[in-house]
Amino acid sequence: MVSPCLQGDISHCVETTVPQVQLPEDILHQIHALMPLRDAAQAACVSRGFLRSWRCFPNLIISIDSLGIKENETNDDEIKSDFICRVGHIIQNHSGMGVKRLIIQTYPWSNIHPSYIDSWLRDAITPGIKEIEISMLRYGGIKYNLPGSVLSSSEIRSSIQIFLLAECSFHCAAQIGCMSSLKKLNLHSVHITGEEFYGFLSNSCALEQLRITNCNDIICLKIPCLLQKLYILDVLGCSKLEMIDSNAPNLSTFFFSGHPIHISLGDALQLRKISFRRYNSPDALYYASIKLPFIAPNLRTLVLSTSDETINTPKAFGKFIQLKYLEIVVSTSKFSQDYDLCSLISFLDASPTLESLTVRIAQPTIRRDSVIEDSSGYSRPQCFQEQCHDNLKNVMITGFCSAKSMMDLTISIIEKTKALECLTLDTTRGHDRRFAKIDKCRWMNKEALAEATKALNAIQRYVKGRVPPGVNLKVIEPCSKCVC
């Protein structure tokens, strides 16, 4: 049953005559604040103590789940009307004081009139609020434009620490004013121009984490040097973005996913981790090898994802002098059969302090250059880069295949690394990333199993005998339940 507190004025709720345990009011409020919204409303219906604290309940999380609304119970218009009614009662019965966290998610409706959202925000966003999340569903419905008036109070702006907007417009951003306490900002599919966004960032000097996703109106993303505390920058899928120009001096983590653009991270002397993924465009590994040593000279962790390399990875133009962990993820759906996997060794040569290397072939690789099917036999060509590596201890290759260039890469690693302790060759899609809830039979088909069998034979014939006695060789085989 729906709580009366969600249906009407909770001032008319009646307290039961059950004997009560007397607790200090501040402890009672703390207990109440830890309850989910619906449980807190129901508790307020049976206790005067909880009823008093309900009027300043700190966590207003508005969604169909938190309100206990079931989809497909009736037609969509009735469900939407019920949602609007319940939210209106909750906001109306709340004093507006004490709200620390406000989350409004309008899924599954894209046509809730903006006037309702404006009214809820005006009543719920009050001085002292710390977290605001407004997540609209925009699917051919009414586009919501966040009004600057809800953030006009300096007392409100000075208390907000976390701000998330999704599927709406935020064109008033530059005129908002100083957000002196804002630490985390997340914009997803938000209509905002680069100039508007720069104005907002210039007023957010305490910002520590910034994530923008699918904000397709931004052409140039400029990060002002005023953001002295910014240490995480994530930019994903902004289709019109042409440039990232960051002058944040203490940036330590950068994640980029998108098409080729110009990236400038200033001096970036504190940058320690980069995750770099380019989609719908080739040669991410080529770009990384010739650009990243100069963009981020002090990297310690580097994760590269690619789906299409038209040319082999060249010798790096610079050095990753402090790089400790390198992960290369290869999606083989469009990957060229002519790409020489052994050219990945150039990253090893450019990373003298590297300790851990992971190469992930995201899908089972069916290569036409299998050493097993070569009647002339396999003989490894002389490697053109024979310098030794003194620090690499752990190497893992998942999606290991029987391709000649894969054999070349593996044997080159064995011969070049004098400190190698563990070599893992995984012929599946990656045993270390499986989830227990996923049925194992989804991982491999019969074609992939045949390639895994070839890879196992290649390991036995060409790799195993070359592994030094002190190295722990782990070979991961598909089990009988892995095939559908």
TrEMBL record:
InterPro entries assigned to the protein according to its UniProt record, in alphabetical order = At1g61320/At1g61330-like (IPR053772), F-box-like_dom_sf (IPR036047), F-box_dom (IPR001810), LRR_At1g61320_AtMIF1 (IPR055357), LRR_dom_sf (IPR032675)
List the Pfam families. Answer: F-box (PF00646), LRR_At1g61320_AtMIF1 (PF23622)
Q: Where is the signal peptide?
A: none
Gene3D superfamilies xrefs = Ribonuclease Inhibitor (3.80.10.10)
The residue ranges of the At1g61320/AtMIF1 LRR domain are 90-480
Q: Which domain of life is it from?
A: Eukaryota
Name all F-box domain ranges: 22-55
- Report the protein name in the record: F-box domain-containing protein
Organism, as annotated: Urochloa decumbens
